[in-house]
């Protein structure tokens, strides 16, 4: 008999709470705190091909391991990069959670994210299908994989001034 994955499972609740916390941290532009939310071997990926699961063999807008996430955070905080100058103010809404896998050590959840941004007197809205794998630990849960599949990933993308 297949186990029904429910939102009453405390492991799932912990994972969703971390995903919401990540959205809050990014909206607050607390990039060092965001960086700490990831495991050392985590990947942060924004693929161009909306159907790929082979990120290493595909072209991606973002394909960050720990080192690249750190460099991205440094750029966002320095103020010299185009993405950091007049960084966008953002509000994220993450919803429509679907539980894919649950074990005692990890939870994989798919969700939808709508990101509203305001930069240089202009509003923009970005939609994405999200996948988070959360590593569960008594020492604190962390993100081990984040994939943001933008609904317009195959179109031209300008410098955004925020992290997804």
UniProtKB/TrEMBL annotation:
One Gene Ontology MF term: oxidoreductase activity
One GO biological process term: 3-phenylpropionate catabolic process
InterPro entries referenced in this protein's UniProt entry, alphabetically: NTF2-like_dom_sf, Rng_hydr_dOase-bsu
The keyword Oxidoreductase belongs to this UniProt entry's keyword annotation: yes
Pfam families: Ring_hydroxyl_B
Record key words, sorted: Oxidoreductase
PANTHER family, per database record: 3-PHENYLPROPIONATE_CINNAMIC ACID DIOXYGENASE SUBUNIT BETA, BLR3401 PROTEIN
Stated family: Belongs to the bacterial ring-hydroxylating dioxygenase beta subunit family.
Protein name: Aromatic-ring-hydroxylating dioxygenase subunit beta
């Amino acid at each position: 008999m297949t186990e029904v994955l429910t939102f009453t499972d405390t492991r799932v609740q912990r994972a969703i709470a971390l995903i919401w916390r990540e959205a809050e941290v990014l909206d607050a532009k607390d990039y060092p705190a965001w960086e700490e939310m990831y495991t050392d071997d985590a990947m942060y990926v924004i693929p161009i091909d909306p159907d790929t699961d082979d990120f290493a063999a595909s072209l991606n807008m973002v394909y960050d391991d720990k080192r690249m996430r750190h460099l991205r955070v440094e750029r966002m905080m320095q103020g010299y990069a185009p993405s950091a100058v007049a960084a966008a103010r953002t509000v994220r809404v993450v919803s429509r959670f679907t539980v894919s896998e649950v074990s005692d050590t990890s939870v994989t959840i798919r969700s939808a994210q709508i990101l509203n941004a305001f930069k240089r007197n202009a509003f923009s809205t970005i939609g994405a299908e999200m996948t988070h794998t959360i590593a569960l630990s008594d020492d604190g849960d962390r993100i081990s994989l984040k994939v943001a599949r933008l609904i317009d990933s195959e179109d031209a993308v300008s410098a955004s001034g925020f992290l997804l």
